[in-house]
Amino acid sequence: MINCIKVERARHNMSQSDLAEKLGVTRQTIYAIEHKKFVPSTVLALKMASIFGIPVEQIFQLEEQD
């Protein structure tokens, strides 16, 4: 799975901690998602999309081997 959370955080001038606080998760969770060590739940992905004001498909995309 490809994700562009880091890019969106930069566009919104947010740190991992800022995003984590808005989502009610830890900074480590954001780090793990960004580094493909953890796949977020649907609810968490939708909350993230809402925070960034974009469709979830713009944040997360399947890779061919997925």
TrEMBL record:
Gene3D superfamilies: lambda repressor-like DNA-binding domains. This is Transcriptional regulator. It comes from the Bacteria. PROSITE patterns: HTH_CROC1. It holds the Pfam family HTH_3. It comes from Pontibacter oryzae. The keyword Translocase does not apply. Residues 5-59 form the HTH cro/C1-type domain. GO terms for molecular function: DNA binding. Keywords: DNA-binding.
